[in-house]
Amino acid sequence: MTEQALARARSGDETAFRELTDRYRRELQLHIYRIVGSTQDAEDLLQETLLAAWRGLEEFEGRASMRAWLYRIATNRSLDALRASRRRPEGQRVTKMPEPTRWVEPLWLEPYPDVLLDGIPDEAPGPDARYETKEAIALAFVVGLQHLPPQQRAVLVLRDVLGYRAAEAAEMLRVTEASVNSLLRRARAAFESRLPAAGRERAPLPNSKAERDVVARFAETVENGDVDGMVALLTEDAWLTMPPLPHAYQGPAVIGAFLRGAEQRRGVALRVVPTRANGQPAFGCYLPQQDTAIARAHALFVLTLAGDQISAITWFADSSIFPKFGLPRTLR
Question: What gap in Å lies between CA 82 and CA 100, rounded to an integer?
Answer without folding.
Answer: 29
